[in-house]
Amino acid sequence: MAWLLVILITAASLAGGVAIAYVTGAAAVLSFIAADQTRHLAILPQRVLSQLDVFTFLAMPLFILAGELMTRGGITRALIDLAMLIVGRLKGGLGHVNVATAIFLSSMSGSAVADAAAITSALVPEMERRGYKREYSSALTVASSVLGPLIPPSIVMIFYGALMNVSVAALFAGGVLPGLLLAGGLFAYNGWAARRYDHPGGRGAEMPPLLPTMFRSMPALTVPAILLAGIIFGVVTPTEAATLAVIAALAIGFVYSWLEPGATPASAIASLGRHLNGALERAAMLTGAIFVILFAAAIFGYLVAIEGLPDVVLHLVETAGLSGLEYMLLITVVFLLVGMVMDNTMALVLLVPLLVPAAIAGGADPVHVGVVTCLNLTIGLISPPVGGSLMVVSAMSGVPYLKLARAVLPFFAIEIAVLLVLVIFPEITLYLPRQAGLVP
């Protein structure tokens, strides 16, 4: 009866629009009462704060700040022009540019929703002007945003690494090939759609000037080089790489401001100051919101540990006689369904400590499980009924939510197929970490 009351209160709070972090925190405290574990509530604040006192978490606000600075400093526009030079002359060129830009932005921001917002504002109106249907261009933008948390750096992978004590550098390396595989699927579908629906593009497409575009894009490309080479090859930790990314974003933002017609060093500094103020404010808001969710979820995680639920799950798996692959497929379905209705950060913190230990005990590599889980939950951002990326792109593009959800279905199917390939063939994920000596 007590558990039923907790469930009813939680459902009513969510339906009433109460913030999910507060709902989770209240539900977790009530769960202590329902489980007759109230004697542990006195130590709860100390326990939760110790769980959040993880050095790796420091990289998160720095990566968020770096992404905000890059978006505000004109780096996005430079990368779009570079992508246009590379793939713009192909049939359906702007669609390919959409995916290529997502690859570039993914190597800087680590956030699917942020990438979706940036590409929607910069590319969707231009694609519509050149003859693409708004529904298609918006759906492609939603689908390509999934690359954000997969290609390093990834805020979601930082969470996973801290929660499961897994090398963040190994997770970052493990996300590269899956990210490129997913991008390849999106490129292939866009190429087919370009011929099927006669999308514009080809040799006669209007292109940005070669040398100015290369000149403006080269500074921006130094950031992913710093991140990937530094982290994967062990030169810097993820937190140090995030710091370098912020410094590089500031320097590049200053250079771009100085290159504007009529700009002076003084005006470039003033422009950079405005960008920095806005970026700091936004990064503080996002970081605060995320840590509130983490704090609330850590309360529930403490109860999970007290009750020994991971051991219960492992016993159930052994009793059912599930093989390692069968259990991986099972939790893949669970994470996919949960990701459709719950914030991916919240789902990660709530479910990973509960379900992942049994997979690792069954022989799965922690890095492989981490990359697959992060991709799995991120796919939830492009699927109804919640779909964070769907909501953002729908609001910014003006495409009705349900119409956009229908338009994204082919891309959703492609990403599910890629997810299953990664589950069945872990070597795709583990190849680069092993070559870099990050996993045995």
Succession of helices and strands: HHHHHHHHHHHHHHHHHHHHH
What structural class results from the helix and strand content? mainly alpha
Q: What is the tally of helical segments?
A: 21
Total strand segments: 0
Helix content: over 70%
Rg, Cα atoms, Å: 22 Å
Assess the beta-strand content as a share of residues. under 5%
What does this structure look like?
The chain has 440 residues and is mostly helical. It has one domain (55-435). It has helices at residues 2-15, 20-34, 44-52, 59-72, 75-87, 93-106, 112-129, 134-144, 155-164, 168-196, 210-232, 238-259, 265-307, 309-320, 324-341, 344-361, 366-379, 388-397, 401-407, 409-424, 427-435. Helix 9 (155-164) packs across helix 16 and helix 12 packs antiparallel against helix 13. The termini are far apart.
Could you give the topology of this structure?
Layout: H1 2-15, H2 20-34, H3 44-52, H4 59-72, H5 75-87, H6 93-106, H7 112-129, H8 134-144, H9 155-164, H10 168-196, H11 210-232, H12 238-259, H13 265-307, H14 309-320, H15 324-341, H16 344-361, H17 366-379, H18 388-397, H19 401-407, H20 409-424, H21 427-435
Helix pairs in contact: 1-2, 2-13, 3-13, 4-12, 4-13, 5-6, 5-11, 6-7, 6-8, 6-10, 7-8, 7-18, 8-18, 8-19, 9-16, 9-17, 10-17, 10-20, 10-21, 11-12, 12-13, 13-16, 14-16, 15-16, 15-17, 16-17, 17-20
